Amino acid sequence: MTIENLVNAGTEQKDKTLDLLRKLSFADGKYGKDEVGFILKIQKDLGFQAIGKA
User: Fold this and answer.
1) DSSP letters of the chain?
2) What is the pLDDT of residues 16-49, one digit of tens each?
3) Contact criterion met (CB below 8 Å) for 31 and 43
4) pTM for the complete prediction?
């Protein structure tokens, strides 16, 4: 397996995970329908720094 295959497989899994999180989150209304707000909220929940901050 090439590095490119591994990267693509990882990206595909990440996309599937995000899609699942979106479906679950939108279903319960926790994150709302705003895509950017959703991503920022997920990052905050996971402990990431906000985009654009050091």
Assistant:
1) --HHHHHHHHHHHHHHHHHHHHHHHHHHTSS-S-HHHHHHHHHHHHTPPPTT--
2) 877 777 777 665 666 556 667 777 777 777 776 5
3) no
4) 0.37
